[in-house]
Amino acid sequence: MTLQQILIKYWHYTTFRPMQEDIILSVLSGNDTLALLPTGGGKSLCFQIPALAREGLCIVVSPLIALMKDQVATLHQRGIKAIAVYSGMTTEQIDIAFDNAVFDKDVKLLYLSPERLTTSLFRERLKRMKVNLLAIDEAHCISQWGYDFRPPYLKIAEIREYIPDVPILALTATATPQVADDIQLKLGFKKHNVIQKSFERKNLSYFVRKEENKMAMLLKIAAKNKGTGIVYVRNRKKTKEVSDLLNRNKISADFYHAGLEHKQRDQKQNAWKRGEKRVMVATNAFGLGIDKADVRFVVHLDLPDCIEAYFQEAGRAGRDEKKAFAVLLYENSDIMDAFKNFQTAFPEKEVIKKVYYCLCNFFQLAMGSGRDSSYNFNINEFAERYNLSAVVAYNAVKFLEKEGYVVLSESFNEPSKLHFVTNNTELYKFELQNPRYEAFIKMILRLYSGPFNDYVKIDENDIAKKLGITYEQTVKTLKELVVRNVLHYDQRTDLPSLIFTSERQDSKDILLADDNYKTLKENALKRFEALTDYVSGNTKCRNQYLLEYFGEKNTKRCGICDVCVKRNQLELTEMEFDTIVEQIKPLISETSLALAEIIHTVKSIPEEKVIKTLQWLADNDKIMIGKDGKYRWY
Q1: Are residues 129 and 17 both part of a single domain?
Q2: Residue 176 placed within a domain
Q3: Domain identity same for 192 and 225
Q4: Percentages helix, strand, coil for the chain, rounded to the nearest 5?
Q5: Are residues 473 and 503 in the same domain?
Q6: In which band, very low, low, confident or very high, does the pLDDT at 232 lie, cut at 50, 70 and 90?
Q7: Domain range for 83
Q8: Are residues 141 and 173 in the same domain?
């Protein structure tokens, strides 16, 4: 099929979005390609369609388990066979998945978490896979200059020797020019090749407001903008408090965070998607993979982590290209809190080593053991046992991850699965010898197809209901069958996984490179300063600031952000305003001048426009007026 026919058959679209076809044609021509597309720009189609257009399969590297699972489920609904391998799966589950990728020609996409690339199990199978494309999602994770650096991404280039003729497609929605160059270098691009769609969102108005009574302002925003909205806050408790406030004021709302049961999260998310709930109040756990086009406003009640995170979260508004608003409310204490968070994110090295020692004891790892072992990780339980702050423990674990000792996955739901390890004949003999299990086994075989060939998802409550027993009895029986070597059973979990990527070492032998620590801290400080500049700035167009941060030069004022709206009230053109400022600033940066002196000095601009500009600059704390009435640039 042609690319157009694939698009119509599987996605029911008749045309590609801007830049999608260019990216697809680039990789189909064998070119390593870096695709920079804004949030909601349709990145996944850029590797899914080439995978279908060529014989073989596409390997997709992604750090987000929830997103991998979501994409695999969506592809299956479209009739496209895909597999995901990620943290928390057993060795046998992974083995079966890799076998399917090698031998089943209908498998078109294999999703992998980055730490899987280093395992001998994967590399041996890779030699036998027919790979047509290597896609790297969230490619900014490979760069130490980026805001979400993940060391396992640095191993990606190593697998190119196994598939030397296969092109790489790296994709991200948040890369500065420095990060874009670093991505191509670290992935071993044969030549520089960036295809970029402008990050500009012409329908999206960015507003920043210093506000003491944020709740009152939120109610005004929600009342004025009648459509769907998202409100982002930093902590879980606050999600419910703000949601309750909205509901009390007759604004339909719900709350969402990673600590909720998976079933609850699904129900809340789907109700919001269907429009049954108008506003979702959430932590940053909400939004990944959600493609709801008609979000009219996104409000941040707390400062986001950095410009990159803000741009992604704000960008969930107005994907239908109709008018939408991204509003950030802050007060001075928020900036102080953000700086404290920045400092907390860099624990002392001795603290990091102590946390490593405690982790090894928590999971009872012997010295020299534990490589590639995976555990469900309850960080609160861990911190409580070793008398650690949960925040400090988390940040220490993230540093151990950056140094390549462990990998911590995000919290996700993994449904229960089972797989029979006997064949039909052996199972029949077992039933004859153990008649009390016969009805139980037959019910499983009736409810689920294919458990001899692969792991199948099961629902213990469903089995219990059909057999007229309790959930607890069902779990107990499944575990008994595991002990008797009849089946393998993995019980569902909502916890993140912690994987040890190397054997346990003595904590004094843990190496934390000074340069690495220093570089990461310096980069984090730069991102903090960029965020505070954006928040406190009131003279530069918000859209221009964001675009220039991501390397887009020679941009124009958007005309619709809070800064531009105020500027528009001056009744000056952009050129007139910039010309006046260019002439005024050098004059009053070194010395104070009276109004008449400034007006006399500014050339070719009417007097009333110069006065309006001076007043605007004074109102926005760019210039000061002394007791003598003279003007001076701050």
Answers
A1: yes
A2: yes
A3: no
A4: 50, 15, 35
A5: no
A6: very high
A7: 3-196
A8: yes
What is 143-180 written as a DSSP string?
A: -TTSTT--GGGGGGGGGGGTSTT--EEEEES---HHHH
Residue-wise pLDDT for 571-585, tens only, equals 777 788 888 888 888
Residue found under tokens 């076809």: 21
Q: Same domain, yes or no, for 179 and 103?
A: yes
Q: Quote the DSSP letter at residue 117.
A: G
Listed residues 162, 196, 230: the one ending a domain: 196
Contact in structure between 176 and 15 (CB atoms under 8 Å):
no
Query: Where a domain ends, among 490, 511, 542?
Result: 490
Asked whether residue 549 is domain-assigned, the answer is: no
502 and 430 in a common domain: no
Q: In angstroms, rounded to a whole number, what is the distance separating the alpha carbons of residues 374 and 86?
A: 11
Nearest to 502 by CA among 393, 356, 369, 394: 369
What are the CA-CA distances from residue 317 to residues 227, 255, 290, 314 (Å)? 11, 18, 11, 6
Determine the Cα–Cα distance for residues 368 and 375; give it in Å rounded to an integer.
17
* Nearest partner of 504 among 394, 397, 406, judged by Cα: 406
Instruction: Name the band, by pLDDT with cuts 50, 70 and 90, for residue 413.
Output: low
Task: Note the maximum CA span of the chain.
Answer: 106
Give the torsion through C-alpha atoms of 204, 209, 211, 214, to 10 deg: 10
Separation between Cα atoms, residue 234 and residue 180, nearest integer Å: 29
Residues 6+ away with beta carbon under 8 Å from 167: 27, 30, 31, 32, 33, 133, 134
Q: Give the whole-angstrom CA distance, residue 506 versus residue 631.
A: 64
Q: What is the dihedral of CA 42, 46, 50, 53, to 10 degrees?
A: 30
Tokens of 415: 């449904």
* Beta-strand pair 107-112/57-61: parallel
Domain count, the chain: 5
Distance CA 170, CA 26 (A): 12
Average pLDDT, the chain: 90
pTM of the model: 0.75
Say which amino acid occupies 33. T
pLDDT, one tens digit per residue, over 526-537 is 999 999 999 998
Which CATH number is 474's domain given? Answer: 1.10.10
Q: Are residues 294 and 349 in the same domain?
A: no
Q: Are residues 39 and 180 in the same domain?
A: yes
Q: Residue 32 burial by CB count (10 A; 0-12/13-18/19+): exposed, middle or buried?
A: buried
